[in-house]
Write a structure and sequence with these properties.
Layout lengths: L2 E4 L7 H13 L2 E2 H10 L28 H16 L6 E6 L5 H13 L1 H6 E6 L3 H11 L5 E3 L8 E8 L8 E5 L4 E9 L2 E8 L3 H7 L9 E5 L1 H13 E13 L1 H4 L10 E4 L2 E3 L10 E3 L2 E2 H10 L3 E7 H12 L8 H14 L1 H5 L2 E8 L16 H5 L14
Parallel strand pairs: 1-13, 3-4, 3-6, 4-5, 6-11, 11-15
Antiparallel strand pairs: 2-8, 7-8, 7-10, 8-9, 11-17, 12-13, 12-14, 16-17
Helix pairs in contact: 3-4, 3-11, 8-10
Length: 398
């Protein structure tokens, strides 16, 4: 959850100097490369340096920041997925983008209390390239056992569930512009010590192929293509032998993402919960993000052997799970009232409920019935604009 525009003074630190030197040597670089360095440079990246702050005192506020209820509700969905897999003795739960480990702790705590048989079977794996964050996650988890892997490629093949929350919106994207006759890719150049945008002809075949799927747009239209998310789906599908992948993130189906009136795209920078005026001013100090095209994700998943098990917004997803967690009258105790406030924050359409979309993919599962989190969802094939054969029908479609 983020808001008003903030101006950030241009940086004079190590990462801007590295990027200026690269541009001086190679010429303008694709914005995708600039964003990758700004977020993931091994020493100076916004995420890899440990600089990223989550919560009220940080740069952004996530569903995990609301409190343990988010993990408690997701634990219910994970336990149901374990049941759908015939309650295996070993159930691998993989989290990618775990930050400091709060979600992992909340999920494992809830499973231990509410689903002890599932908890006993669970093997918690975290995909985390940052040594600093791995140490923080280990400290947060305390008594719980987890296993760490630096990349998705390093993860062994598994049966179970892969979970991510606000992961794909932080993948480096290709920024593009339609000039009325052709798409051009946005690059980053130098003007003195400042970084500036410049558009250049597109040379990437995968980028051209992705752009060919977009609807007609007006001249001057700017938007984004997330090729990294498609490669990520391929890698995930290769690792998941049987089970589910649950993705929560900012985003839209393609028809909504690339509406003609969305002329400036979704690419945004944040610092201390406020949008920054200049995306290029402070690489390494600013959270850069772009929404996810969930149709592209679902199409790639289908091509990789996965099937859409459900798609909805966080409002409907949390309400469906919350009905199990709050089955009757809520006690008037401080703890219960805190949970209720957290629930409202997670599900309210004007808070987090409509900001996030929830996509679940499945592979080699046996039950065709809808997962609980999607019992209020619309038909996913229609909502996403994909082939009906690529998705499990919604119970609301009958």
């Amino acid at each position: 959850m983020k808001s008003v525009v903030k101006k950030i003074a241009p940086m004079t630190g190590a990462l801007p100097a590295i990027l200026r030197a690269r541009i001086a040597h190679d010429g303008p670089i694709p914005f995708r490369d600039f964003m990758e360095a700004a977020l993931y440079h091994p020493e100076h990246g916004y995420y890899t340096s440990g600089r990223a702050g989550i919560g009220r005192g940080g740069d952004f506020f996530t569903s995990v920041s609301v409190g343990p209820l988010f993990g408690t509700l997701l634990a219910r969905q994970f336990a149901e997925m374990w049941e759908r897999l015939s309650e295996p003795r070993e159930f691998t739960l993989v989290e990618q983008g775990a930050h400091r480990g709060d979600f992992a702790r909340d999920v494992l705590t809830a499973l231990r209390t509410n689903a002890p048989a599932c908890f006993a079977a669970t093997r918690y794996h975290i995909v985390e390239p940052s040594a600093a964050l791995r140490a923080a996650q280990s400290e947060t988890l305390g008594e719980f056992t987890a296993h760490w892997f630096p990349t998705l490629d390093a993860l062994p093949a598994f049966a179970g569930v892969h979970f991510s929350n606000e992961l794909l919106d932080a993948f480096p994207i290709h920024a593009v512009a339609w000039d009325g006759t052709a798409w051009r890719e946005t690059h980053v150049a130098r003007e003195g010590q400042r970084f500036v945008f410049t558009d250049r002809p597109i040379t990437s075949t995968p980028l051209r192929d992705a752009l060919a799927k977009l609807p007609p747009v007006p001249a001057g239209y700017r938007t984004e293509i997330n090729l990294a998310a498609l490669a990520w789906i391929d890698a995930l599908a290769a690792k998941l032998t049987r089970g589910f992948a649950l993705v929560i993130d900012y985003g839209f189906p393609r028809a909504d993402y690339y509406r003609p009136e969305r002329t400036t795209g979704t690419l945004t920078g944040y610092a201390q919960h406020r949008r920054v005026a200049d995306l290029l001013a402070a690489p390494g100090e600013t959270d850069l993000t772009a929404h996810v095209d969930f149709t592209a994700l679902a199409e790639r998943a289908s091509a990789a052997g996965l099937r859409v098990a459900g798609f909805t917004d966080q409002h409907h997803f949390i309400v469906a799970l919350g009905a199990l967690h709050f089955p009757g009258t809520i006690p008037d105790t401080p703890a219960s009232q805190r949970e209720l406030r957290a629930f409202k924050t997670l599900m309210h359409p004007q808070m987090m409920g409509r900001s996030f979309q929830v996509l679940t993919l499945e592979k080699a599962t046996t039950s065709p019935t809808q997962l609980t989190g999607f019992r209020f969802a619309r038909e996913p094939a229609i909502t996403l604009g994909i082939s009906p054969s690529a998705a499990t029908p919604s119970p609301l479609s009958s």
